[in-house]
Amino acid sequence: MDDSLEFDLVKDYISGYDRTKTAIALTKFRETGFELGNLLAEHRIIVEKSSLNTILMLTTYSLSYNEIDRTVRVLSSVIKEFHKVDKKELIPDPFQHLETKPVIEPHTARRVAQTIGRVVPLKEAIGKIAAEHIEIYPPGVPVILEGFRITKNNVRYLLKVKDMGGHISARDPSLETIYVL
């Protein structure tokens, strides 16, 4: 299919574009964006953001055409080694059973945590009220928030992303423990 024809099919849904950024989706591959980002770093190519299924690359004015060509060559050779899959394993939706309202308002949970907060093993935290927020970075969206009940799906999601090479932003990035009320 001609590139201009593909663009014509989606142009009504695009408000604009940024020629300095390139997003690459890896949903058809077994490997993750975290793995691709690490492989590119071994070749001294820095990725702006890596996630489970994507990488985002940033082209700045300081890059020479030679560096851009080298990046494309390395990226092509690395991706050729990736394993295509019919359907990538989906990780559990951490928001599937998320309550729409916190059990305790987040600002109250933070204050109360100073007196009754405690650290427990992550798997023992299921059903308890979170006294910290935990997010996957990037993109930086919290999976667990202060004042909300911790669900089994939250824990499964965090552990799966960690196993896949994701970066966890939490008091304990190893996910051995979590701070609860």
Looking at this protein, list some descriptive labels:
181 residues; elongated; Aspartate Aminotransferase, domain 1; three-stranded antiparallel β-sheet; 2 domains; Molybdopterin biosynthesis moea protein, domain 2
Biggest sheet character: 3 strands, antiparallel
Strand segment tally: 8
Given the helix and strand composition, which structural class is it? Answer: alpha+beta
* CATH fold-level label of the largest domain: Aspartate Aminotransferase, domain 1
Poorly predicted runs: none
Overall residue-averaged pLDDT value? 86
> What CATH first level of the largest domain would be assigned?
Alpha Beta
**Major β-sheet strand ordering:** 1-3-2
SSE order, as H and E?
HEHEEHHEEEHEE
Question: Can you identify the CATH superfamily of the largest domain?
Answer: Aspartate Aminotransferase, domain 1
Number of domains: 2
Q: So what's the overall shape?
A: elongated
Separation, N- and C-terminal Cα atoms:
56 Å
What does the secondary structure layout of this molecule look like, with pairings?
Blueprint: H1 3-10, E1 21-25, H2 33-42, E2 49-50, E3 54-58, H3 65-80, H4 106-116, E4 118-121, E5 134-137, E6 141-144, H5 152-163, E7 167-169, E8 177-180
Antiparallel strand pairs: 1-3, 2-3, 4-8, 5-6, 5-7
